[in-house]
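Note to self: keep these together.
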Amino acid sequence: MSGQLHHHHVPQPQPQHRCLFVTGTDTEIGKTLVSAALLHAMQAQGLRAVGMKPVAAGASLQDGVWHNEDVDSLMVASNVLAPQELVCPYLMQAPAAPHIVAELEKVDITLPHILDCYQQLCAQADAVVVEGVGGFCVPLNDDVTTADLAQALDLPVIMVVGMRLGCINHALLTAEAIRARGLTLCGWVANTVDPSMLYLDENIHALRTRLNAPLLGQIPRLNVPDHEKAQSAASYLDLSVLK
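Structure:
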C-alpha cells in the first residue's frame, strides 16, 4: 500500500493520448455530452480525468456565482475537483457568438491564459478533455479562432458529428480543417441529434469510409434524466479504438 501512496507523489510523465480536444460539426450537436461521456469512460479506466471548456458564452447567476450549463456538466463529470476559473477561464454572460460577447462584455480572450489554465489542470489530472466552443473555426476575437486554440494546445482531436441532414459535408469540411492545422483527427463520434433522420446507418457508413479516423461510437437519442445522460452515453463509446 505504501508503494501505491508513494506513486501518487512522483509526477508521472503525462501520456499525450490521455488529453483530448473535442470539436464538433456545428453548435448544439452534443460536444458537451460527448466530452462528459469521455470523462466517464476515462474514469472507468482508472484515470483522474477533468474537463475544460476554455470559453463559454451564456451564463446565469445562481447564489452569486455565474454558471454555464456546459461548464457545470463537465465539472460534474470530472473526478478531479478543480476551480471553475481553471475549467472555464472565460465565462461570459450573453448566449451568442463568443467574439461578439467578448467585445460587448469587455473580455480580452488570450491563448496564453488558456494554456496556463490547461497546464494547471494537467498537473492535477491524468487526463484533460478540452471542449471547444461551437464548430472548429469559431472566432474568439479579431485575431484568434477556436482552430488557433486547438493548434496551440496541439492535442489529438475528437470530432462530434451531429447526425442530421447535411452532416456529411460538415464532417468532411471539419476533418479537412483539423488536418490543415497539422492536427490529428484521432477519432469521431456519431451523435443522433435528429432521431427521425433518414438513412442514419448509410450516413454513418459514408463517413466511416471517408473520414480516415476510427468511429468511437454511435450515441442514440437518450431517454434518461439529464444527470444520467453522460454516464449513459459513455456506455456507447469505445476508447480502445483511439489512434
